[in-house]
Amino acid sequence: xxxxxLSRRERVRLSKTIAHxxxxxxxxxxxxxxxxxxxxxxxLLEGLQRHRSAWVDLSFDDLTICxxxxxxxxxxxxxxxxxxxxxxxxxGLLDKTPAEPPENLYHGTxxxxxxxxxxxxxxPMSRNYVHFSTDRETAQLxxxxxxxxxxxxxxxxxxxxxxxVTFYHGNEMVWLADHVPPIFIDFPS
Length: 189
Description:
ADP-ribosylation fold, 189 residues, elongated, 6 helices, Arc Repressor Mutant, subunit A, 2 domains, alpha+beta, four-stranded antiparallel sheet, three-stranded antiparallel sheet
């Protein structure tokens, strides 16, 4: 077994954070779990790197060594994907079921992204879907992990859905969409 460059304390912290990300609040790390709880290891690494500045150099090897050396075997890695074996508090994970959203949803972003969003709306960028939170606080936390000056957008989701935008119910905290045009977004003044 290869030795980890992370201390035991850092490995424990990393393992607990991965458990939190894969079992309870993937949206805080901007993760999209499939219906079986899988996510790409690269997406997890990016989320962890944004979550904690000390992990900015975290590598695939660091992750696998940490998981191999863990007393509690909580995770499974297959090829380039990872999932938690058990303990999920996410009802139904993030299955993409079209549904009628709440009247408003929230999306946290950065000041730097605003010109593009004002012009073209919200796009998934390098992800499969645009993520929305049901509350301002969660959207704020997600935006803070992106770095830069945080901006909170209010999306008039029900109005957008009635105009033809499809929203997917992820779980009680997360909604997804393929794209939301700027006409349905309330920008800060």
